[in-house]
Amino acid sequence: MSSEKVCPDCEEPLERMELQGTDVLGSLSIVSPADDDGLLSGIRADEILAPVPYVCPACRRTLVYAEE
């Protein structure tokens, strides 16, 4: 299976982009909780992923993937 990401609408290869902005809190990340055993379980994390946008050059659909 190819690791290349394709558009689910038109099946064109997606182009990787970069997020930009003025984030007061720092860089944006996606955190997977280590366990779901209470109110503070979201603070601990076993995996931190960065959101990476991909854009279809044909139809301009934008998809965001969580990547290391």
Could you give the topology of this structure?
Elements: E1 15-16, E2 30-33, E3 45-55, E4 62-67
Antiparallel strand pairs: 1-3, 2-3, 3-4
Largest sheet: 4 strands, antiparallel
State mean pLDDT (0 to 100 scale): 76
What count of helical segments does DSSP give? 0
Tell me the number of strands: 4
How much β-strand is present in the residues? 25-35%
Radius of gyration, CA atoms, in whole angstroms: 15 Å
Low-confidence stretches: none
Q: Encode the helix/strand succession as letters.
A: EEEE
Residues in helices, as a percent range: under 10%
Oligomer: single chain
Shape: elongated
What is the terminal separation in angstroms?
20 Å
Structural class: mainly beta
Polypeptide structure, described:
By secondary structure, the protein is mostly beta strands. It is 0% helix and 34% strand. It has no helices and 4 strands. Strands 1, 2, 3 and 4 form a 4-stranded antiparallel sheet that branches. It is elongated. The two termini are 20 Å apart. The mean pLDDT is 76.
